[in-house]
Amino acid sequence: SRPGYGSSTMDSSLSALDDNMACLRAFLDRRIARPCVGIGLSNGIVPLLAEEQAHPGRFASLVAVGYTGILDRSGMDRLPPIPRTMLRLVNRAPWLVELMAKSGHRMMQQHGVDWYLERAYRNTPRDQATCGDPNALALLRSASAHLLMQGHGTFVRDLQLIRAPVDDALDTLGVQMLWLAPMEDGVFDEARY
Questions:
Q1: What is the mean pLDDT of the chain?
Q2: What percent of the chain has pLDDT over 70?
Q3: Is 59 helix (H, G, I), strand (E, B) or coil?
Q4: Of these four, 2, 87, 114, 177, which has the most CB atoms within 10 Å of its CB?
């Protein structure tokens, strides 16, 4: 589990990337024979890329599941206004992003996950349509409730992880990486990367 998720604690003395790297290395060094396949869900690919750059050959290959801003930096400009603003401020004014996340977390506790989903996806028609699918909505509600339980700090750290400087790791990646993502998305475009 990544720091801040499940029972894993975050180390606030470390950057988001360093905290994830410490957790990943502790797991790999104690439990996994090398090389292995590294699988990163959404932003979970970021520490895997950084680890492979720091220790080439640590992984036999990598699998990125879902969209993440590091695989399509141009997609960040197409995000709805609030997440786009938060991503732009997360390194420059982390205190402000923390305040925004606390406020959003409190509102989500008061009004529920459906309130959050309606606001989170109101600017992207494709995502609105997904929220209209009862099967997809059940999964989105579950994921949103999980995020609510993790707290605002985990959300902020995830934003910081998106902005981690790992572009060089992609450019010099020495192992195969498979990217599993939908063919179409309201924000990200795999053809641009």
A1: 84
A2: 91
A3: strand
A4: 2
